[in-house]
Specification:
By secondary structure, the protein is α/β, with parallel strands linked by helices. 35% of the residues lie in helices and 15% in strands. Strand 5, helix 5 (149-158) and strand 6 form a beta-alpha-beta unit. The chain binds S-adenosylmethionine, 6-(5-methyl-2-OXO-imidazolidin-4-yl)-hexanoic acid (DTB) and iron/sulfur cluster.
Length: 343
């Protein structure tokens, strides 16, 4: 068995590893499926309640018109997509949406803006939103593009818990997808967030035409950071008309997705792994396997930023059927009771 943690002389697990080698990641990935899932479940149970998932809610506080050229994104101004640009939302609208998200079963609220980086006057407004959402008793997350150290500190002072900034893919595949910001730019923003005392949410996308080696390369990059991101979102590319990724996209074999989640769980044992975008394409059975492999967070709500997500009622029913607890428990559901789901 490849050990996910360094072990002390007394035999108890200590800190996660940060020295993963490519051959080790590949060896995990290539294990017989049952062995891989057993190892991932064992690691998962060492650090988390296996019957609980986190529920996060997303709001696009500033949509579209983005100067970056991320080849998967509906919000880039470089591509002809169905998304129209909006201005930054006002604080009261954001707070009212966060209140509804909490009532609908979210425990974290993530505010996303289609910027290369925030201007300082926009950051003033985002800081006000963060403080107001935090006061509602929600965990706060923001994703606003690249940050300076000072901007990260200001967000932390305002009450921000997490900063989401994804590496998106492997260092090798990266230049096929984005040219306007480098992987190094991203690593620097992550370091600014860390040094400001923010928790880091960082992951990427699968299904853009990358190879398994790229998916493992991305996990190695994350797992070999000086500290593992507290949250690791794994997004399955949500189809967007008019963007370059349309020409290369290939939805992964579902078993390959489960293997990747299991490897993420083993390599980053203490990180929350979020089954992020793309659940709209997944069967209940595939999602169940992903939870067994160690995924323990989802986005709830019918839309993500500009694309679809499963209906919350369906999510509540699925979690109930699996005996998984979440902040959705107790939220009134209008769909059938567990056991009545059609085959
Ligand atoms: N503009 C900011 C930035 O990119 O840093 C924040 C928002 S951006 C939409 C956040 C992340 O969402 C991206 O880094 C990418 O990983 C993910 N994402 C964007 N479009 C997606 C899509 N169509 N399918 C899956 N994930 C997507
Ligand atoms: C992340 O990794 N996934 C979320 C969040 N971080 C900001 C975004 C998913 C976006 C999916 C495409 C869309 O809805 O536009
Ligand atoms: Fe802009 Fe973020 Fe979309 Fe890239 S992913 S185009 S930075 S909104």
């Amino acid at each position: 068995m490849i050990s996910a943690v360094h072990v002390t002389h007394s035999g108890s697990a200590t800190e996660p590893r940060h020295d993963w080698q490519r051959a080790q990641a590949q060896a995990l990935y290539d294990l017989p499926f049952s062995d891989l899932i057993f190892q991932a479940q064992s690691v998962h149970r060492g650090h988390f309640d296996p019957n609980h998932v986190e529920t996060a809610s997303l709001l696009s506080i500033k949509t579209g018109g983005c100067p970056e050229d991320c080849g998967y994104c509906s919000q880039s101004a470089k591509y002809d997509t169905d998304v129209s640009a909006t201005k930054l939302m006002d604080r009261d609208t954001v707070v009212a949406t966060a209140q509804r998200a909490k009532a609908a079963g979210a425990s974290r609220f993530c505010m996303a803006a289609a910027w290369r980086n925030p201007k300082d006057k926009d950051l003033d407004r985002v800081c006000e939103m963060v403080s107001a959402v935090k006061e509602l008793g929600l965990e706060t997350c923001a994703t606003l593009g690249m940050l300076t150290g000072e901007q990260a500190r200001r967000l932390q002072d305002a009450g921000l818990d997490f900063y989401n900034h994804n590496v998106d893919t492997s260092p090798e595949f990266y230049s096929r997808i984005i040219s306007t910001r480098t992987m190094q730019d991203r690593i620097e923003t992550l370091a600014h967030a860390r040094h400001a005392g923010l928790k880091v949410c960082c992951g990427g996308i699968v299904g853009m035409g990358e190879q398994v080696e790229d998916r493992l390369g991305m996990l190695m990059l994350l797992a070999n950071l000086p500290r593992h991101p507290e949250s690791v979102p794994i997004n399955l590319w949500n189809e967007v008309k008019g963007v370059p990724v349309n020409d290369t996209a290939e939805r992964p074999d579902p078993i390959a997705l489960v293997r990747m989640i299991a490897v993420a769980r083993i390599m980053m044992p203490k990180s929350v792994v979020r089954l992020s975008a793309g659940r709209q394409y997944m069967t209940d059975e595939l999602q169940a396997l992903c939870f067994v492999a160690g995924a323990n967070s989802i986005f709830i709500g019918d839309v993500l930023l500009t694309t679809k997500n499963p209906q919350t009622d369906r999510d509540a029913l699925l979690l109930d059927r699996l005996g998984i607890r979440s902040a959705l428990d107790g939220v009134k559901s209008e769909v059938s009771q567990p056991g009545q789901a059609a085959l």
